[in-house]
Amino acid sequence: MKELSKKLTERFLKYVSIYTTSDEDSTASPSTERQKELGKYITEELKSIGVNDAYLDPFGYVYAHLDANSCAEEPLGLIAHMDTSPSAPGENVCPRIIRYEGGDIVLSDGVVTRIKDFPNLKNYTGQDLIVTNGTTLLGADDKAGVTEIVTLIEYLVAHPEIKHRPISVCFTPDEEIGRGTENFNAEVFGAEKAYTVDGGLLGELEYENFNAASAKIIVKGVNIHPGTAKNIMKNAALMAAEFIASMPEAETPAHTEGYEGFYHLCEMRGDENEAILKYIIRDHDKDRFESRKRFMISLTEFMNLRFGGCFECEIRDSYYNMKNIIETVPEMIDNAKNAFTVAGVEPRIVPIRGGTDGAMLSYRGIPCPNLSTGGENFHGVHEFISIQSMTKMVEVLYNLVCE
Ligand SMILES: [Zn+2]
């Protein structure tokens, strides 16, 4: 186990040293060419381990397969993403390993991970934590997932006496900008069931996510010189403000948690001529999700009656709750729970307040719950991961694929 932890740590430190931030403004695939550098590195690494079919495709996806050495025929897929979030700097990551003995962690001058802000820290006393230097994110999301999968594969190749089922691996680009499955090739992947290894806290098992849509409200005004505007001007900015004020005040991200859905105003701009409001709509429950969309349409109709037809509403679905799909393969949840329990980790089933690549894949015919990586505080400088948690996750994955 010590040897495995050491290899895993070295591997993780190598991966996070490669700059793979994705870019939401890019239309290229992958969104940033630099992601392929990590893809190339991992492909070579897998080949050197003995996985000869490891392959980096032109879109930046790495595929690899490990044949079964048992009579189990059904392949299991393992998926993680190689990009890191554009919401924090991801270049020149300078990780540091500390033996955590309790208390706050000073990352650098003035940047401190405090227990009062991150109370989970106290669960890590006595563990070895990989932390940042306070200027970048760490990249455990999701290079920890990649590390854990590659380490499992390496272990299985080195121990041919251990019986396991066929394993399909895919490492994707651009998950953080919602494009991780855009060019996913299900045929090359070859598994009809898979897990993403992209969650946080050790033990997390997720198979419920939001149903998601975006709504764009376009308000068209009538503009005229303000000095002669009486009974003529229709100020689009003011009408847009009325729309915002008519939305349910408590149903926003700042007032909801757990299974509570929301409307989130994520952009507003405009003047007298035209105003644009962009919302995202989220709800775990399919019926409530549909009624949220209907509400926005009827509010638009109401505003049109009130202001004489100045409003348009465009709604587009983004993704759906994978629960409906996963419920048709309950053994995937049972197996995952069991894999955690056998490794001595208590499974924690939590609804995701967002989406995952697994949700997208589930609706493309590959049911795909999400497993923890063991990391914490993703997408910021306080991100950290414990080496013990990563090692545990290798054991959990082992339990999933071995007999
Ligand atoms: Zn992630």
Report what the structure shows.
The strands form 4 sheets. Strands 1-2-8-3-9-16-10-15 form an 8-stranded mixed sheet, with helices on one face. Strands 4-7-18-17 form a 4-stranded antiparallel sheet. Strands 12-13-11-14 form a 4-stranded antiparallel sheet, with helices on one face. It folds into 2 domains: 2-208 and 321-401, Zn peptidases (Aminopeptidase, 3-Layer(aba) Sandwich); 211-319, 2-Layer Sandwich (Alpha-Beta Plaits), CATH 3.30.70. The protein has helices at residues 2-17, 35-49, 140-158, 186-189, 236-246, 286-307, 323-326, 330-342, 357-362, 387-401; strands at 55-56, 62-66, 76-81, 96-99, 105-108, 111-113, 128-131, 167-172, 194-199, 204-206, 211-220, 262-270, 274-283, 311-319, 348-349, 370-372, 375-376, 384-386. The longest helix has 22 residues, at 286-307. The mean pLDDT is 96. The protein has 10 helices and 18 strands. By secondary structure, the protein is an alpha+beta fold. Strand 17 (375-376) and strand 18 (384-386) form a beta hairpin. The structure holds zinc ion. Residues 81, 141-142, 175, 198 line the site of zinc ion.
Q: What string, H for helix and E for strand, traces the elements in order? A: HHEEEEEEEHEHEEEHEEHEHHEHEEEH
C-alpha Rg (nearest Å): 24 Å
List the total number of helices.
10
Percent range for β-strand residues: 15-25%
Structural class by SSE content: alpha+beta
Average pLDDT level = 96
